[in-house]
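Ticket #4471: structure export looks truncated?
Reporter: QA, pipeline team
Priority: medium

Steps to reproduce: submit the single chain below to the structure queue and open the exported record.
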Amino acid sequence: MVFYQLENTIPQRQYDRQGSDAEDSDLLSGLTPLAIVRLVTVGPTTRYAAPTSPGAAAGWRLDRLVEPSRLFGANGLRTGPDGRMYIAQVTGSQVSALNLATGDVETISAKGGDIIAPDDVAFDPHGNLFATEVMDGRVSVREPNGATRVLRDDVPSANGITFHQGRLFIGECREGGRLMEFDLAGGPPRVLLENVPSPNAMEFGPDGLLYFPVMGANEIWRIDPDGTGAPETVATGLGVPDSVKFDQNGSIVSTQVASGQVLRINPRTGEKALLAQLTPGLDNCTFVDGRLFVSNFTGAITEVLGGGETRTILPGALNWPLDVAVADDGRVYVADGTYFYVVQPDGSLQTVGMLFSPGYPGFIRGLAASGPGEFLVTTSGGQIARYRPAADECDYLADGLDQLYGIAVAPSGVVAVEQGTGRVLSVTREGGVEILAKGLDRPVGVTVTPEGDLLVAESGAGRVVRVTPSGAETLVDGLQCPQGLLAAEGRLFVVDAGEKAVISVDLANGSRTTVATGLAIGPPLGVEPKPLKGMPPFSGPQGPFAGIAAGPDGTLYVSADGEGSVLALRRV
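Actual output as written to the record:
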């Protein structure tokens, strides 16, 4: 791994906020501290699993606008037999172990490895790690020597997992999900319960009953794993619970994904007490030597200290990022799937919207500023939308499309790329959808020149095409994996994830220059990520998109999705 030494950094700090309950539940209030840095290769602390040597061409300066991520988000948590905290990371197909004594983060199962999109983990008495693979509907087991095998591959939305007295229990986080006990010898599973509205991370209580959050019902239930009786409701009226663990006193501790609360719940009475108010997006929790830690979609790991106090162990940061845009106010906005951010002057990220905030259009992938306070977005759920986050409003312009990526404003209305079908689409102001081009090989980014030319990055073919009424014609070829596109000042800027570079093409004569190289974009060389199939209804297939945008002063902003940062290329 590699990280970049910080030069003239802003001190890392936690933004603590106090206020009323209404203010605490405000989904737009979370701030994540980040920094502006100069890129200097020195040693390992980012998630990017290969050394890089970023550099800029003469006349350009390369800065990091947003600090890189330590993790690919943070989902399931489990304390391992070695005392380390094991962290499942869905979008990175990675499992990491955090040593709380040293702060070291070790990759246990890496991107490109045998475990795909792990959402939760558990250990058996022999030290084998079991992982639910939510997007592939699988459960895999990794032995202490690293050998990995698939235990079952017929578990749609496999998510919650726990061992109890040597027995393995699994839940499916989907509408109509099942709770099951797996036969470790390979026989068919035993179904404990069916038609559960999205059960999530579960645990056995001191009474020997299986406790589990039911997100669709906003409740916590329990069931006798050996009985045939109906489940009992333990607690209701929560903040969308997505994990259950037990403290040393036998009380439930549960994270609330929508409200950002960490609750202690009496399993006998259902009485609730607030342990901590954090930002929405909490996913799981675990105890290490009696200390309570919680995870967030952002990759944040937070210790809950008591009395409402918390301490950041790993800071939240970007999960991907995907597309970027510069709005009329000159600020940089970042699409990060479940989160939508604006970059603050100090390099920190302010949450503008997220999956559980009102009016959020869905898992945002493509992004374009379309007016004051308004954005055009594509979602991995197949929607094209007009999004006004300040007003909590979203208008869907089209739906039911297949793997949408880039989006742009065009004279005719809105244009977007549909990668699943290889098409380029136009959505008219009247709401009609017109096919402008088809048969493209994995199109990703799209841009419109000031003259109205429509340009599309065809990543599978390694080229950029101009879309005309008669079809698609090659404009730039010889690329490896073009993704983000930007037409500005007579030039076309291309983010090539294969070359790890930003390339500038003169639209008048076709000459090209490389503006920046050695960027942490896409997977490291030699790593072939497995496809992420998506998690209905939260998202469809998830894929990379290294976007690019320009500020009023000509600064280029680039998504470095490999390391989870945003880069700035400035003319000097």
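Status: closed, not a bug. The export was complete when the record was re-opened. Leaving a note from the reviewer for reference: The chain has two domains: 3-69+318-525+541-571, 77-314.
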